[in-house]
């Protein structure tokens, strides 16, 4: 049915401006449509020509995406008839559970993560549960309850120092756990994490190429967090490789905690906030005065920008500022 085929083609949306390659975008779109059941088993999918016309991409790009889907066993090409879905979506059952357990839920990162988890899990016939743990005790209690339900867990953990607290209870868990954003020292879990070291090296190299010699590292108190450690290590390595001297991090925010999204925003609009005052004091007492600030995330970069404005230091003429997250 031509009308059905055209409707199916318009189900697919890709971005010409994305850093993700076109064939990967198309592969992901097709995979999601098939796994979710939106394109049911035995139905014909659009032809290469229809994808090319609708998406304005090359035939080789379309062919590569279809080859990947075919290798996964989701489609079958039948000579003279076309290409057909060969996958039946699994219906969700109560016992098929993936849990997202997080230490905080006040940032866009957390919401985007939950949306991605829910979309992929649903396509594979799983239900998603969500829990927030405000401390280590709550976290391990939640994980032990999920173990009784035979759930898989995606864990954005509370801060875990080395040696690991509650070590034995974590090691006794017998459920699959995938970590997000930060590693847990002492435990051998899979982890989905940014290239904190490589990205930070690129940032620091950019500062050095601009001619900066006095660069500071702005962080919250939890400098032992794996992502922060990797970023600070890159800061130190690039400076030393260029004959420059690293200094101790500038630390702001509540002791023993990460800087929350809400606190950072509140502090940025309160000229008397402790965080802004701390950055101002660091800058006024620094000799020589730094010409560049590497903030461990964009929230702290915003605070640094605000502090420089209060000090009448123009950006980037007097001070260059960079954050890591690109939010």
Any overview of this molecule?
By secondary structure, the protein is α/β, with parallel strands linked by helices. 43% of the residues lie in helices and 15% in strands. The chain contains twelve helices and twelve strands. Strands 5-4-6-7-8 form a five-stranded parallel beta sheet, sandwiched between helices. The protein has a four-stranded parallel beta sheet with strand order 10-9-11-12, sandwiched between helices. β6 (152-156), α7 (167-171) and β7 (177-180) form a beta-alpha-beta unit. α10 packs parallel to α12 (298-310). The longest helix is centred in the middle third of the chain and has 16 residues, at 108-123. It is globular. It starts with a helix and ends in a 5-residue tail after the last strand.
User: What is the rounded Rg?
Assistant: 25 Å
> What is the 3D form?
globular
Strand portion, in percent?
5-15%
Total E-strand runs:
12
Assembly classification: single chain
Secondary-structure element order, N to C:
HHEHHEEEHEHEHEEHEHEHHEHE
Helix content: 40-55%
Helix/strand layout:
Elements: H1 2-9, H2 22-35, E1 44-45, H3 48-55, H4 59-71, E2 75-78, E3 82-85, E4 97-102, H5 108-123, E5 127-132, H6 136-148, E6 152-156, H7 167-171, E7 177-180, E8 190-192, H8 196-209, E9 215-219, H9 226-241, E10 250-251, H10 261-268, H11 274-285, E11 292-295, H12 298-310, E12 320-322
Parallel strand pairs: 4-5, 4-6, 6-7, 7-8, 9-10, 9-11, 11-12
Antiparallel strand pairs: 1-3, 2-3
Helix pairs in contact: 2-4, 8-9, 10-12, 11-12
What can be said about this structure in brief?
The protein has 327 residues and is of the alpha/beta class. The chain is built from twelve helices and twelve strands.
């Amino acid at each position: 049915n031509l009308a059905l085929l055209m409707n199916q083609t318009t189900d697919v949306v890709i971005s010409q401006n994305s850093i993700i390659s076109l064939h990967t975008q198309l592969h992901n779109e097709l995979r999601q449509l098939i796994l979710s059941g939106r394109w049911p088993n035995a139905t014909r999918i659009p032809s290469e020509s229809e994808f090319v016309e609708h998406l304005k991409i090359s035939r080789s790009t379309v062919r590569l995406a279809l080859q990947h889907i075919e290798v996964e066993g989701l489609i079958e090409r039948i000579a003279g008839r076309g290409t057909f879905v060969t996958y039946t979506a699994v219906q969700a059952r109560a016992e098929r559970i993936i849990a997202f357990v997080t230490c905080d839920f006040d940032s866009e990162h957390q919401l985007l993560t939950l949306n991605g988890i829910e979309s992929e899990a649903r396509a594979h016939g799983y239900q998603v549960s969500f829990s927030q743990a405000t401390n280590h005790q709550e976290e391990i209690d939640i994980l032990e309850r999920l173990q009784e339900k035979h759930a898989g867990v995606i864990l954005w953990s509370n801060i875990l120092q080395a040696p690991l607290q509650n070590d034995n209870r974590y090691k006794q868990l017998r459920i699959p756990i995938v970590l997000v954003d930060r590693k847990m020292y002492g435990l051998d879990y899979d982890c989905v994490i940014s290239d904190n070291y490589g990205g930070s090296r690129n940032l620091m190299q950019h500062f050095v190429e601009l001619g900066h010699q006095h660069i500071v590292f702005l962080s919250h108190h939890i400098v032992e967090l794996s992502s922060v450690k990797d970023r600070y290590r890159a800061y130190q390595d690039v400076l030393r490789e260029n004959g420059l001297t690293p200094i101790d991090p500038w630390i702001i925010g509540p002791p023993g905690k990460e800087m929350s999204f809400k606190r950072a925003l509140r502090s940025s609009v309160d000229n008397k906030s402790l965080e802004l005052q701390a950055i101002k004091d660091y800058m006024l007492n620094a000799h020589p005065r730094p010409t560049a600030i590497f903030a461990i995330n964009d929230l702290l970069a915003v605070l640094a920008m605000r502090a420089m404005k209060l000090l009448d230091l123009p950006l980037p003429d007097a001070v260059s500022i960079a954050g890591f997250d690109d939010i």
